[in-house]
Design brief:
290 residues; alpha+beta; 9 helices; 12 strands; 26% helix; 30% strand; globular
Length: 290
């Protein structure tokens, strides 16, 4: 499925700033040559933290092994912490809601005309599910976030902010089996609060990242369907000068490695061959070490 046509996008709120989308069976074909069918391990290779993967496992309801397409939308426009967090799981096969509710000991409640199910987890106090049909589960960690989720899904990217929709349409590879698209003009404002939270090891105490975040406008990442294609990262900055500085920094950081760094106006592009073992490392090193 082309990124812009993934049906789960139609459930994301208009306020979504960042999207992670994964077609799990296809990604497993790429990252799991031993055929262990372990989606959690595949997501870990992309650089996702362990606690984040555990949360996605809980939010998916049916478990990641039963998910065909997984979409995570993060909204920062209305609330920085915790952010608006929506997970849409499109399952591999129809699921039985009654069985799922009984197995997870979920509690039923009504909210704005929807039937929502509440589940206790070890990572966050509660996860809330909504089941629009027997192939889709929509989850969030804050009940109020369902207010932005449409009762009927919009078509593709029609309900997203124009900046995010444009990134998906023009900067994400059409054959991507996993991709990220993010756009916001206040990344520094959002990041500042997270640097003060000690339980977030990636950014806790990293006040050195606030200034660079203020120059950032957008990020896309495309992991290709075919192993012969290049992994493609595009970083949009707010000025040519900021882009030139980032290009020079990344060129130096990846010197001697099979990583191509280039620039067109305010956008820096990083391309590298698809190597499952080193993919997470390359992605992680886009953010400088302290």
């Amino acid at each position: 499925v082309k990124p812009a046509d993934m049906p789960g996008l139609g459930y994301l709120p208009e306020s979504t700033s960042a999207i992670l989308a994964v077609q799990l069976p296809v990604l497993l074909d790429q990252l799991d040559p031993a055929r262990t069918d372990d989606p959690a391990k595949a997501l870990e290779r992309l650089g996702l933290p362990e606690h984040g993967i555990e949360l996605l496992e809980s939010a998916s309801g049916v478990g990641l092994k039963e998910v065909d397409q997984l979409i995570v939308g993060v909204g920062l426009k209305n609330r920085t912490f915790p952010p608006q967090f929506i997970v849409v799981a499109y399952t591999r096969r129809p699921y039985d809601l009654k069985t799922l509710v009984r197995r997870t000991k979920a509690r039923e409640m009504k909210r704005d005309g929807r039937t929502v199910y509440v589940v206790k987890t070890s990572l966050v106090p509660e996860v809330y599910w909504w089941a629009p049909n027997n192939r889709v589960l929509v989850a969030t960690i804050s009940l109020g976030d369902f207010a932005g989720v449409p009762s009927e899904p919009r078509a593709g990217i029609e309900g997203l902010r124009p900046e995010v929709a444009s990134l998906i349409r023009h900067a994400v590879a059409e054959d991507a089996c996993a991709w990220v698209a993010a756009s916001d003009d206040e990344w520094d404002k959002h990041l500042r609060l997270y640097t003060l939270i000690p339980i977030l090891p990636l950014v806790a105490g990293r006040t050195d990242l606030i200034e660079p975040a203020g120059r950032l406008r957008s990020v896309t990442l495309s992991i290709p369907h075919g192993p012969e294609r290049l992994v493609d990262v595009r970083i949009g900055l707010k000025s040519d000068a900021a882009a030139a500085e980032l290009e020079a920094s990344l060129t130096d950081r990846f010197h001697g490695e099979p990583v191509d760094v280039s620039r067109a106006a305010e956008t820096v592009r990083i391309q590298t061959p698809f190597h499952p073992a080193g993919l997470g490392s390359v992605i992680g090193r886009l953010v400088p070490a302290k």
